[in-house]
Amino acid sequence: KHLYPNAKFWVGPVIEEGFYYDIDLDDKVIKEDDLPIIEKEMKKISKDGKNIIRHELTKEEALNIFKDDEYKLELINKMDDCIISCYAQGDFTDLCRGPHVETVKELKYFKLLKFSGAYYKGDAKNKMLQRIYGVCFENEEDLKQHLDMLEDAKQRDHRKIGKDLEIYMTHELVGPGFPLWLPNGSVIRRQLENYILDKEIKLGYQHVYTPCIATTELYKTSGHWDHYQENMFPIMKIDEEELVLRPMNCPHHMLIYKNQLHSYRDLPIRIGELGADFRYESSGAVCGLERVRAMCQNDAHLFVRPDQIEDEFAKVVKLILDVYSDFNMKKYKFRLSLRDKNDTLKYFSDDEMWDKAEEKLRKVLNDLKLPYYEAIGEAAFYGPKLDVEVKTAIGHEITLSTCQLDFLLPEKFDLTYIDKDATKKRPVVIHRAILGTLDRFTAFLLEETKGILPVWLAPIQINIIPVNNEYHLEYSREIKKLLFEKGFRVEIDAREEKLGYRMRDSQTKKIPYTIIIGDKEKEAKQISYRHFGVQDTVNMDIVNFIDMVNYVITNKEIK
RNA sequence: GCCGAAAUAGCUCAGUAGGUAGAGCAACUGUUUCGUAAUCAGUAGGUCAUAGGUUUGAUUCCUACUUUCGGCUCCA
Asked: Which nucleotides of B are covered by protein (CB under 7 A)?
């Protein structure tokens, strides 16, 4: 207020990681150089040590005091005729429910971190306000610790790891949101693909390949044209046809189901695909592998009888839990995404169907005793869903897995099965993605592991370093050949460099096992290896080493 | 898409109040043959993102555009 006399204050809530304040500065915007200036002024105010005093006002009084501030007026007008509280410190007063600390003296250890525009009430149609973010702590040490933690998070950012370990790249000529997977990243992805396909095959899934492009008619039939068009790339016209890149695979899978007659005995039918999809993401939203415009979904559509919904849904939830435990993932949240009953535009109107579906999902979650929270208005247009959310290194909340119930698409595509009584019945579809997309899952994995991948996923699993090429290279090559033939991803570093130099390189690349071959190993017909991040060396016979690594791989051990 | 910021060697960055640029690492050559996180020395490497404009002269100032980053909105 001292620095910007015209400032109008909107809200300044406390958030998980500190606080922010939204301010209307007329046409002024906050620039990078302004933060230290504001910070200095805040320090001054804090030093001043004014008390923060609570005033209680009636609605009328409040309207009068803030009569020049349209933001406050709106806020006050929305309140009931109760007592309205204000807090004042020196010459500054703002509306607030409270409570507050007693004096600004208690607010010495803070730092303003970032600033940005933010839409008034979060709606892109409204005016953009200036938002300032910051953190505040009781003492200097806690503040420093927090800032260190932010620095650490930057090191875990998958975009940094992705570059350092040559997982993926991007290029201006390819375009934003279109990452290119490099050989190392492709090894990881191939392992993930094989892993999840194997899991699904064991659970009775059948996998298909379908094209990434289709006529607009397909999406008009499915309803996506009306509900999803803003996320799709524009139409391609050729000959007399209108084609689009697909944003999802469900319509294709509906048609595959429809290709045959199905008996009630055949259900559930589970059609899976690692399907490439294309979605228009706003340019400000794309982020490394985490948020892309061309992605590969670990998708499947389960066609079930109404009486099979709960059982099949529970199986999907169990698969999610099973997979997460394989990746040693512990921090995630289940979100039950429901419709907003008032939003008749987005959601098809059949209250009974919605209520029934939502109840079924709830029941399964309760039976499995899983903690979850409900989110109104987050459902897909065709049905409620369960999302699994995680937080990235830099604090983005993203959805990984999803499992969605759908009564609508079977209707739209007129899907049927022949029931016991020889009449046609409507199946229900469950859409689900366990790894979500391979792109996002890989991004998350890199951040979780800080790039130290479990052996089964590591692009290079074993690195062999001969102490002296003249004497040890030949034996090293024998070892390499043996390991390669056993199916391990193994390399040999025969550069004319010191052992220490090559060991450092091996560790920097986060290779799980580094084998050293010198006189001792050659004579004893053994190998010695060092595990990533561990100081000591272990000697053993090569057959034992192979058994050990195989064990670690098949059990997907983290270390 | 919106608000802000950034773009210099393969990577991380420095620099020029406007006179066409430097370091470390990587690469290459030589040196060292050395048992667990960097042997030493030299060489090479840049249309300073792109396109215009101002200027005697632009990597530096201005405009446009592209990409990236921090948020907002949106989502797997």
From this structure: 1-5, 11-12, 27, 31-39, 66-76
Q: Quickly give A171 CA vs B48 C1' distance in Å.
A: 19
Whether complex ipTM tops 0.90:
yes
Q: Name A492's bridge partners.
A: A464
Q: Which nucleotide is nearest to A387 (CA to C1')?
A: B76
Cα–Cα distance list, A224 to A38, A221, A357, A433 (Å):
48, 8, 20, 18
Instruction: Give the separation between CA A432 and CA A385, rounded to whole angstroms.
Output: 9
Tokens of A307: 């009486």
Amino acid in the structure at residue A474:
E
Return the structure tokens found at A15.
């958030």
Residue–nucleotide distance: A207 CA to B25 C1' (Å): 47
In chain A the first and final C-alpha atoms are separated, in Å, by 54
Neighbours of A76 (CB within 10 A): 20
Question: Nearest nucleotide to A178 by CA–C1' distance?
Answer: B67
Using the structure, give the distance in angstroms from the CA atom of A120 to the C1' atom of B61, rounded to a whole number.
36
The verdict on pTM exceeding 0.80 is yes
Closest residue (CA to C1') to nucleotide B11 in the complex: A164
The pairing of beta strand A513-517 with beta strand A109-119 = unpaired
Which residue, counting CA atoms, is nearest to the C1' of nucleotide B3?
A117
Q: Tell me the HSE value of A87 on the side-chain side, using a 13 A CA sphere.
A: 13
Find out whether A251 and A219 touch, Cβ atoms under 8 Å. Answer: yes
Q: Which residues of A are catalytic?
A: 250, 279, 297, 299, 301, 385, 431
**Residuewise pLDDT in 10s, chain A (559 residues):** 577 777 788 877 787 767 888 888 776 777 777 777 787 888 888 777 778 888 777 777 777 777 777 777 777 777 766 677 788 777 777 777 667 777 777 777 888 877 778 887 777 777 888 888 888 888 888 888 888 888 888 889 999 999 999 999 999 999 999 999 999 999 999 999 999 999 999 999 999 999 999 999 999 999 999 989 999 999 999 999 999 999 999 999 999 999 999 999 999 999 999 999 999 999 999 999 999 999 999 999 999 999 999 999 999 999 999 999 999 999 999 999 998 888 888 888 788 888 888 999 999 999 999 999 999 988 988 899 999 999 998 888 999 999 999 999 999 999 999 999 999 999 999 999 999 999 999 999 999 999 999 999 999 999 999 999 999 999 999 999 999 999 999 999 999 999 999 999 999 999 999 999 999 999 999 999 999 989 899 999 999 999 999 999 999 998 6
Please return the burial class of A147, using the count of CB atoms within 10 Å of its CB with bins 0-12, 13-18 and 19+: middle
Closest-lying nucleotide for A282 based on CA to C1'? B1
From the C1' of B73, which residue's alpha carbon is nearest? A124
DSSP state of A127: P
